[in-house]
Amino acid sequence: MPKGVYLDFERPIVELEEEIEDMERLADKAGMDVSAELATLQAKLARLKEEIFTHLTPIQRVQLARHPRRPYPLDFVERCFTDWLEIHGDRAYADDHAMIAGLARFDGQPVAIIGQQKGRDTKENLRRNFGMPHPEGYRKAMRLMKTAEKFGHPVIAFIDTPGAYPGIGAEERGQAEAIAHNLREMAGLRVPTLSVVTGEGASGGALGIGVTDRILILENAFYSVISPEGCAAILWKDGEKRELAARAMKITAEDLEHLGVVDEIIPEPLGGAHADYASTARAIAEAIRRHLGEISAWSVDDRIRRRREKYRTMGAWKGPEGAHPGPRDPVPAGEADRRS
User: Fold this and answer.
1) Among 89, 304, 74, which residue's Cα sits nearest to residue 193?
2) Which of 2, 43, 212, 227 is 20 to 30 A from 202, comparing alpha carbons?
3) Which residues are CB-neighbours of 119 under 8 A, at least 6 positions away?
4) DSSP single-letter state for residue 111
């Protein structure tokens, strides 16, 4: 892990790694055998990592989801897919670099890929608008999804955004309409659809490409209606209460699986996804392979019916007449059509 690129709770790990590196360097220079000492330090490092990363708080998981070295969608495209061909523009206004869209092959099968892309440095972040898409980004994504539907290709979405861009220009060009249009159209796509929350999944900006048959999430990613800082600023007028907000909002992968919002948690290597891109990509590919196989076996009508019921039944609540269908309760036959 490069110096200076770590979170506060990672500091003890970084310091121990630097101690190990210094010992190896001095041993090489002096020609000394320090294998026993190194083995002790390596064991200590393994224990420290396990202690820290198995007891993370919700806000620490949010920090990991935003880690500057966390893998982004194009990192997974490079490792999980072949024959990547990116498309550009919404054929109406411009090309949004915060939203990637293109065709590729997964296990030899053609697929359509969309995702929100951040940058690694200041220049790239400005180009990618820090992963916050404009309306043309959502329209580009829908353009690709409709193309995929025409040719019968599955759609795979990678979600990682702090939210859709809230600037005046984006609002003038129809940001809310573009997202709402995607929600409606994705609900009725005839091809298999799958989304993976790889980092931040905040607000309607995330949902704008996330209405899919299955929703997967990396272990340290989060998915929420608003960021913890935004929630704290609204409820307590104090953004510093983000830790309290993160706990109250139930935004971690475990919470989301329990509530029925996501379908599977994809494990990350010890230390987070940024510690090992390759193993994280392999875990994602395996999950995609398994879920696509299941979804593809459904008929088109059954797929659309299941998808719509999935979102209609999301969120258990009770009214005067008693309990309503919850996250894991099936909607009675014919009930979904009657409600619509």
Assistant:
1) 304
2) 2
3) 125, 126, 127, 128, 130, 131
4) E
In contact, 281 and 80? CB cutoff 8 Å: yes
Q: For residue 197, give the H/E element and its range.
A: strand 193-202
The H-or-E segment that residue 137 falls in is helix 135-151
Contact 306, 263 (CB under 8 A): no
Residue 62 structure tokens? 């949010």
Q: Buried b / exposed e across 106-133, counting CB within 10 Å, b at 16+?
A: beeeebbbbbbbbbeeeeeeeebbbbbb
In the DSSP assignment, the letter for residue 167 is -
DSSP run (H or E) holding 186: helix 175-187
- Torsion angle of the four alpha carbons 168, 173, 175, 180, in this order, in degrees rounded to the nearest 10: 160
Residue 188 burial (10 A CB sphere; 0-12, 13-18, 19+)? exposed
Other beta carbons within 10 angstroms of residue 42's beta carbon come to 13
* pLDDT of amino acid 161: 97
Name the residue type at position 7: L
Tokens standing for 35? 């294998």
Average pLDDT for 10-17: 88
Residue 75 token pair: 């990192």
The residues facing 323 across adjacent strands are 318
Residue 18 scores a pLDDT above 60: yes
Coil/strand/helix, residue 204: helix
In the block, which residue shows the tokens 């600037």? 167
